[in-house]
């Protein structure tokens, strides 16, 4: 029966040849020749009566593929086309939004069937063999652009999708020219300009989400915008402020403590009022009026108002001379305590008051009075009265022993902020946790905020004031958990593996976090926690343990992506194993085991993250090859991870077993395991052949010399036994 070709796959390839081609049809048994046009292929494999595999030779244009058999002659011809794979040399532009017109330059674009931006198809027009105009489809980030023609798919070129910048806030939203303004938002990378209204501002891009700009000259409320290569952002309002102005003071003179009305404009948002260099307490009544209290001072001073827009002009205020108290020594005590009042203007003093109670006193000099504290309680104001008026006041506190009623919290680590509640804390000079001094702040007569110093166990907290030391309250030091190791410290992104956390103070763990994801705790002791790792992305995350005492130090844990196998070289070998196989794929750097089916390979050598070599184990048939790493075990691919074991070929007979020394005799080799025959030798001389079936190979004897030679068959399964062929004259 004549051979018939129904299809070839693929039906095209590069002019250099080398493309693996599968020929499908019928009547191929005993095929002796395969041609691409007039060029015979160097070798081919008869897979079955309906299929031959071979490698395309070099060629140009179109060539008719034919198959010749001894009995059926030559088949029909099916066209194979030689073409050049397209090449991209540049994109113009290399970035833009969806809908951008992009010119793709290069070569081999004639007959292009598709253009892809990443995985998205683009509409396009072939302008010439070296140029395509394409419209960028919807997309984001940076994607790879490729062109596909009948000759194949091109190399890739990067195209970056751009997005408009967005302003979410300004800080501050008002100020004068020269104010530093932080613009927050997104998409600021590559910003080319910042405008306050129509005025350009100098600026620095701090990150994709933040710009520091300096407000240019301007007035009123203007719109701030950011421009990048992707376009101009939305706008945010910025208001220019004006300096405050003082027009009058009422009154223009007085003693310290005098209430002064400051009139003018621009007082909204005032941050300070100064009488000379002294700060005054004040209230903003309106944009045009402030009520201030004159601080201590003397002579004539200049009054100014400061707002976020700056400092005003000045107006003169003159101090009149009243007695002034600058200090009390001591500032607290019981009734009967001798108190030295220091200051000025005391000559002729007529009375000294502790609150509303009159005190006995002696004027020692114009700047000093000795007074005896009358009966009283709490904190009272001490004043001196002379013919010029009454002085400012100074506080004197009647002391009682401090009392602690509670601590919040009652336990914690060194550095814990502790609120001490009770009474009599005014003037506190020290707080002790056991014998250790603590830093503290007196919040009120009934409350102190203290920071627990270094300590351990349960200690007694006390407060000391000029009146004495308080009762005590117990505070217990807790110890933070400490992690020293993770076993293992890496695992699959799918999670689910068991991790043992070792350390100290781990009892009573309330949570274990892998980054922001909680792990499941399965066992917990003071020195060890066993957890089930949660799922995570392929990256390093910090593992922490939290107990009632707080959160531990972090240790890194590495999520490893599962390996993938994309190819094997070779894809077949002897059933006895022992040959080296190169495995290609991804995520292979940490490979700990490789299996051919259920059999473990040996001598695993990591070449790179994408390549390893192993020694194949013993096996039979076609098996799936898998790689195992901390990220898991590779899964079934698309047939490119399968390995076929081939049994050694066996020769049982030659027919005929003799021939001419000139060669050219057709010899039928019978035996078993002959399907994958890749070479036939008469002695050391190679012979042409065709594998007809698993039990039959047709070969042509090469020239030889008179006498016997040993005929052998070689395949991926090894070399066969020898059969004797007799060369005759």
Automatic annotation (TrEMBL):
Where on the tree of life does the source sit, at the highest rank?
Bacteria
| Signal peptide annotation | none
Outline the segment boundaries, as ranges, of region: Disordered. 1-20
Compositionally biased spans, kind Polar residues: 1-10
Q: What sections of the protein cross the membrane?
A: none
According to its UniProt entry, one GO biological process term is: carbohydrate metabolic process
| Protein name, UniProt field | IPT/TIG domain-containing protein
Q: Which organism is it from?
A: Kitasatospora aureofaciens
Q: What is the lineage of its organism?
A: Bacteria, Bacillati, Actinomycetota, Actinomycetes, Kitasatosporales
């Amino acid at each position: 029966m004549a051979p018939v070709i129904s299809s070839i796959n693929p039906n095209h390839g590069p002019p250099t040849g080398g493309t693996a081609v599968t020929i499908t049809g019928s009547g191929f048994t005993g095929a002796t020749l395969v041609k691409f046009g007039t060029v015979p292929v160097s070798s081919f494999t008869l897979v079955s009566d309906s299929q031959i595999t071979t490698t395309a030779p070099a060629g140009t244009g179109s060539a008719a593929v034919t198959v010749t058999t001894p009995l059926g002659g030559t088949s029909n011809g099916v066209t194979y086309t030689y073409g050049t794979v397209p090449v991209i040399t540049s994109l113009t532009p290399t970035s833009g939004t969806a809908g951008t017109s992009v010119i793709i330059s290069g070569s081999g674009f004639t007959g292009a069937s598709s253009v892809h931006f990443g995985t998205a198809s683009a509409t396009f027009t072939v302008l010439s063999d070296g140029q395509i105009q394409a419209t960028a489809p919807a997309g984001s980030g940076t994607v790879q652009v490729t062109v596909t023609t009948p000759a194949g798919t091109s190399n890739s070129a990067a195209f970056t999708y751009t997005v408009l910048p967005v302003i979410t806030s300004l800080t501050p939203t008002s100020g004068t020219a020269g104010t530093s303004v932080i613009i927050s938002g997104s998409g600021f990378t590559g910003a080319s300009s910042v405008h306050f209204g129509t005025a350009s501002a100098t600026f620095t891009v701090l990150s994709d989400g933040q710009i520091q700009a300096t407000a240019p000259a301007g007035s009123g409320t203007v719109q701030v915008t950011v421009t990048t290569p992707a376009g101009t952002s939305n706008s945010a309002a910025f208001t220019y402020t004006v300096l405050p102005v003082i027009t009058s003071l009422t009154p223009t003179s007085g003693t310290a403590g005098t209430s002064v009305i400051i009139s003018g404009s621009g007082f909204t948002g005032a941050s300070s009022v100064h009488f000379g260099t002294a700060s005054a307490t004040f209230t903003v009544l309106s944009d045009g009026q402030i009520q201030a209290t004159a601080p201590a001072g003397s002579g004539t001073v200049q009054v100014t108002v400061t707002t976020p827009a700056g400092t005003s002009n000045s107006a003169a205020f003159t101090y009149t001379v009243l007695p002034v108290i600058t200090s009390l020594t001591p500032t607290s005590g019981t009734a009967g305590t001798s108190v030295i009042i220091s200051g000025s203007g005391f000559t002729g003093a007529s009375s000294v008051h502790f609150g509303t109670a009159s005190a006995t006193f002696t004027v020692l000099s114009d700047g000093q009075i000795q007074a005896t504290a009358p009966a009283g309680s709490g904190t009272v104001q001490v004043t001196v009265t002379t013919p010029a008026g009454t002085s400012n006041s100074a506080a004197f506190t009647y002391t009682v022993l401090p009392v602690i009623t509670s601590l919040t919290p009652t336990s914690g680590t060194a550095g814990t902020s502790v609120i001490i509640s009770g009474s009599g804390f005014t003037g506190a000079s020290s707080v002790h946790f056991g014998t250790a001094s603590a830093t503290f702040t007196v919040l009120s007569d009934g409350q102190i905020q203290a920071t627990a110093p270094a300590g351990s166990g349960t200690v007694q907290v006390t407060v000391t004031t000029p009146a004495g030391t308080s009762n005590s309250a117990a505070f217990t030091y807790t110890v933070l958990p400490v992690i020293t190791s993770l076993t293992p410290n890496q695992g699959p992104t799918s999670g689910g593996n068991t991790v043992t956390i070792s350390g100290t103070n781990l009892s009573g763990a309330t949570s274990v976090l892998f980054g922001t994801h909680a792990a499941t705790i399965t066992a917990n002791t003071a020195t060890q926690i066993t957890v089930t790792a949660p799922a995570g992305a392929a990256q390093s995350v910090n593992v922490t343990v939290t107990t009632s005492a707080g959160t531990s130090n972090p240790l890194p844990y590495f999520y490893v992506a599962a390996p993938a196998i994309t190819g094997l070289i070779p894809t077949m070998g002897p059933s006895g194993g022992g040959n080296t196989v190169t495995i290609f794929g991804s995520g292979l750097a940490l490979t700990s085991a490789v299996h051919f089916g259920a059999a473990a390979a040996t001598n695993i050598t990591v070449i790179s993250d994408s390549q390893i070599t192993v020694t194949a184990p013993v096996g039979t048939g076609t098996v799936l090859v898998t790689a195992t790493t901390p990220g898991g075990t590779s899964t079934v691919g698309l047939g490119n991870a399968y390995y076929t074991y081939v049994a050694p070929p066996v020769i049982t007979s030659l027919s005929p077993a003799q021939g001419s020394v000139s060669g050219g005799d057709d010899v039928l080799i019978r035996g078993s395991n002959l399907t994958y025959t890749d070479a036939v030798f008469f002695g050391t001389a190679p012979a042409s052949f065709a594998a007809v079936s698993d039990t039959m190979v047709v070969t042509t004897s090469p020239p030889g010399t008179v006498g016997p030679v040993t005929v052998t068959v070689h395949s991926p399964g090894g070399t066969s036994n020898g059969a004797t062929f007799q060369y005759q004259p």
